[in-house]
Structures are given as structure tokens and as C-alpha cells.
Design the sequence.
């Protein structure tokens, strides 16, 4: 088996990024957090609020820019409660999003009369984009008359990514100008759009690959665009 610098480089990056348990724990949470949001209800106009969230409840504080005054408005219990049903509330937030992404599938269009290709080569990238989130919270009652808050999340973001990867260099991908076969290291860059869930992000990407050795002159996909299916794990 032949080893390439691509696998070595990606392995080192993986150790640095995921070697800390705290980093993994932080990356596994991509949902509602303490912070400032825009609150929208059926009966009141949009207002700026601060959420203080625990496993048992969400405390909502009114936030005004004048002198930084903050006062508690109400509390949403998250466990079983006897409180009355509440109207649906929507909390909106936007901000910078930083993810570790991987392009699971790359579709490369036909070139030089050769058929289109679908590749699943090893790759990793750092993604930076602008994220929009909307959280719906409503209290529902089950058949046993127990009430519990339900939280739904819908989000999306758009941004840029860049990172290392591996690709197969062989006679097919060099139009028969390279007779042997090996894994070459690439740098991939592009733009991506995600639909967000609580833990992971899924979306589409458009990018290009740069082969990091002299065979870039004969590699038919060097700097050629591809369409990919991308998944991301949040770091912030």
C-alpha cells in the first residue's frame, strides 16, 4: 500500500482539531444557547431579549440598549409542568458560523470527452459563513395532561470553505499522461450553502481543487469546478 503526504497532513489536522474532549463536546452542540435573540409572538412586536437556558427552564429577559438595562419578562419550563399552555414563540438569531466540513460526494462534469465522475475521496475543510436561525417554542399537553415545552429549529447559512484533501492520480485522470497510480494531495476551496440541524449541517457546495505537485499540469480536474454534497460539524 502506498502512503501519500495527503493522508499524513489530514491525519495531523484531525488530531489537532479533535484531540481535545472539550472541542468535541463543544462541536456536538449546535442549538439554542444563552445569548441575545429577537423574540416574535402573535400579540407583540419583535423585541430584543436575552435567554438564560438551563436543562429545566429558559428565562427570558428584556434587553434595552439604554444603560444596558435587563429585566426578566417570564420563564419557560422545559420539564413537565402544570403551567397553562402558551402561544407559540419564535426566537431569531444570526451571526458568524465556523464549522469543520467534509465533502462527502463530488460530482465532476465530463471533460475531454471522458464520462462525468462521482468521487468520495478523503477531504476536510474549514468553513466560515453567516448563519440565520429560527427557534419555535410551544408548550404541548400529552394524553396524561402533562405539559412540556417543545423546541424546533430551522436554520441556514452561506459561506466559504478551504482545506486539504486526497485524490486519485492515474491514467484516466491524466488522459493517459501518467501511467502509474497514486493518491495526490489537493487544496479545495469554494462556496457552500447549508441547512442546519441541532448537531450537524448538510448542504451543497461548488468548488475547485488544486493539485499540490507537478502533475497538476496533466491532471484533468486541476482548477475545474465540481458540485458536492457537504456535511459540517459546528465549532462555535
Sequence:
Amino acid at each position: 500500500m502506498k502512503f501519500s503526504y495527503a493522508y499524513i497532513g489530514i491525519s495531523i489536522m484531525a488530531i489537532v482539531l479533535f484531540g481535545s474532549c472539550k472541542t468535541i463536546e463543544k462541536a456536538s452542540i449546535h442549538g439554542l444557547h444563552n445569548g441575545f435573540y429577537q423574540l416574535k409572538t402573535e400579540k407583540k412586536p419583535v423585541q430584543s431579549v436575552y435567554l438564560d437556558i438551563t436543562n429545566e427552564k429558559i428565562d427570558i429577559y428584556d434587553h434595552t440598549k439604554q444603560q444596558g438595562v435587563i429585566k426578566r419578562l417570564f420563564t419557560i419550563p422545559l420539564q413537565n409542568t402544570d403551567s397553562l399552555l402558551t402561544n407559540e414563540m419564535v426566537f431569531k438569531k444570526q451571526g458568524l458560523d465556523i464549522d469543520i466540513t467534509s465533502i462527502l460526494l463530488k460530482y465532476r462534469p465530463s471533460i475531454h470527452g471522458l464520462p462525468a465522475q462521482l468521487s468520495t475521496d478523503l477531504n476536510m475543510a474549514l468553513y466560515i459563513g453567516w448563519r440565520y436561525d429560527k427557534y419555535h417554542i410551544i408548550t404541548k399537553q400529552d394524553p396524561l395532561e402533562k405539559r412540556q415545552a417543545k423546541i424546533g429549529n430551522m436554520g441556514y447559512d452561506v459561506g466559504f470553505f478551504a482545506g486539504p484533501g486526497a485524490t486519485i492520480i492515474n491514467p484516466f485522470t491524466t488522459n493517459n499522461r501518467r501511467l502509474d497510480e497514486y493518491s495526490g494531495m489537493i487544496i479545495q476551496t469554494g462556496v457552500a450553502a447549508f441547512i442546519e440541524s441541532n448537531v450537524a449541517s448538510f448542504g451543497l457546495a461548488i468548488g475547485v481543487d488544486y493539485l499540490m505537485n507537478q502533475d497538476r499540469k496533466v491532471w484533468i480536474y486541476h482548477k475545474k469546478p465540481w458540485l458536492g454534497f457537504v456535511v459540517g460539524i459546528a465549532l462555535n
